């Protein structure tokens, strides 16, 4: 096994809260999957959880070295939770294709958030 890429991102929770307030459903549908929306909206402070998932998507794109755009879209990266609470990533569309091309076998994820910031770290492993 070897590391194919590492990505880290930090997001201001207020920035995501602002986008939620200003663009509402349009922002949600553009960036997040149905499962992510359902989970985050069920939480006491949804913006914190949306911010963590936003950071995760950015971190995945950085680990691949592509950014969000041509190679993969926002919704190609889906952050789920196990019953234990541990997050995991499911890749779809362009992200899944890129992972297959590069021999990615495992995507490791760590999320963290406070009142003001959310952070994500991603490791791609072959």
In short:
The protein has 126 residues and is α+β, with helices and mostly antiparallel strands. The protein has 4 helices and 5 strands, in the order βαααββαββ. The chain has one domain: Ribosomal Protein L22, Chain A.
Question: Average pLDDT across residues?
Answer: 97
The assigned CATH architecture is: Alpha-Beta Complex
Strand order of the largest sheet: 1-5-4
Residues in helices, as a percent range? 40-55%
Principal-axis shape? globular
Number of domains: 1
The profile of the biggest β sheet is: 3 strands, antiparallel
Please report the number of helical segments: 4
Note the gap between the termini.
5 Å
Low-confidence stretches: none
Quote the CATH topology.
Ribosomal Protein L22, Chain A
Tell me the total number of β-strands.
5
CATH class bucket? Alpha Beta
Cα Rg: 14 Å
Class inferred from helices and paired strands: alpha+beta
N-to-C order of helices and strands: EHHHEEHEE
What's the name of the CATH homologous superfamily?
A: 4'-phosphopantetheinyl transferase domain
Strand coverage percent: 25-35%
